[in-house]
Amino acid sequence: MTAAPDRQFKVLLTAQNAFPELERQFLQAQTEIIAGFRIFDPWTKLHTTEAKAFGDTWFDLIVATLNRDVKVTFILCDFDPVLGAELHMQTWDSIRAMAAAAEVSRNPHLLSARASLHPARVGWLPRLLLWPRVRKEVASNLSGLNNLPRDQIEHRLRSAPHFHDLVKWKGESVVPRLRPPPLVPVTHHQKLAVFDDETLYVGGLDLNDRRYDTPQHRRDADETWHDTQVLVTGPVAQEAAQHLRNFEAVTYGKPALPTRHLLRTISAKRRIALPFLSPKPVINELAQMHHAQIDQSERLIYLETQFFRDRTLAKHLAKRARANPDLTLILILPAAPEEAAFYDKTGSDVAYGEYLQTKSIEIVEDAFGDRFFVGSPAQPRDTDRTGRDAHYNAPIIYLHAKVSIFDDRLGLVSSANLNGRSMAWDTEIGVATQSADEVQSLKNQSFEHWLGPDAGPEFYDVKTACAVWAAQARRNTALTPKERSGFILPYAKAPAAELGYDLPGVPEEIV
Questions:
Q1: pTM
Q2: What is the DSSP code (8-state) at residue 59?
Q3: 145-169 pLDDT, tens digit each
Q4: Domains of the chain, CATH where assigned
Q5: Can you list the alpha helix ranges (DSSP code H) found in 252-337?
Q6: H or E element, residue 373
Q7: For every residue of 464-509, which 3-state class applies, written as one string?
């Protein structure tokens, strides 16, 4: 994790900085690109002048890359066709678009694009218990479909191969089959690309137009998206390429290759799944790294995450806080989960997630007391909206980044949230650095982004940062949005606590 003298470690905040870098890496690759993403939409707009010389979208850039005799491999996450029906269809739309790009290129044989569905399945016992709800979900997915002409229905079913297996024709409509369908509890949540086994692009950011935002976050709340990627050169890139060639075999039970520089979460299918909702955890290096660094931290832990729902991690933080009265913690979260903020969803999965996050924050709060600050970002402009897409009378900034910094000693960027799913179930990838320069770069850019350029050294000092962040956030609540300093406000616990409720017997990792 200590950097070589000539290593590149480039921090890329928001898609405005990350997407152009990804385009440049595709343009510069000489022999091979291998990539694994949760979402990668070939119809995403291009942003650099160099890439737009070949067309307007990533479809055109893929064609141009193949035409340069570069081998390109995409491994996209496939999704459960019941609970992730729309994402399942989007994945296969992307696969077909990539195949079309290959066909119009001069080298179609150089493209490999596949949808990877994790092999773990919910066991028969929980599947039977869930069948009434699942049947309703399938029927709901069919309600709009059955309003289409038959040829369009057939086309959509062909577009979603795993969903096709869940239904049957009854007259001119499709209906759910009677048998409980297999359910896939796990996804490949990683977002990475490796270029010529030399350069790694990794972090929390997938590729589509929804995820595009700028560091100024001036878009409508539901179009904001704060994320962090890093571009890293050196041996970690070779390990990442090996991971992409090997991780699917690990999910089927094959041994994982050891790594020195790469951090992973990988689970596998169970040999006997009968009573289980969960997969078999195999590698939890990201969780282990967080726990180990918490134990070594002396003054300041800084965490940016989409979700803070891992009560095991929260208890570990609390234990360290009680052992070390000098330790402080800054936690930055979105004001609300995307489903609640922008889609008004309040179902059991959203509610359970909010319950776990409320409990996790309470565990940490009880141990740290006033040495703990939890904040959420909002834009410096007024809004008249009163839902959870607003925070202290301002549109929220949706935070999706996964950044952890321990003192000024170690920085970590990954695809993993601080929830049980990312720590134990889903396929996740991250990189850590102990290089003083790299940790400082990650810290300075992350802090300045939220605080603004005028924040003094006390906001960066591990001894004073927590207190002054909290004080500034409190001051901001008394000001109009335009008068505030930076983006940070206190996190509001009440809305999550009101929505959240426990689901006894349901694994915490499911959300």
A1: 0.96
A2: H
A3: 888 898 888 888 888 888 878 888 9
A4: 9-119+184-238 (3.30.870.10), 124-176 (no CATH), 284-510 (3.30.870.10)
A5: 285-296, 311-323
A6: strand 372-377
A7: CHHHHHHHHHHHHHCCCHHHCCCCEEECCHHHHHHHCCCCCCCCHH
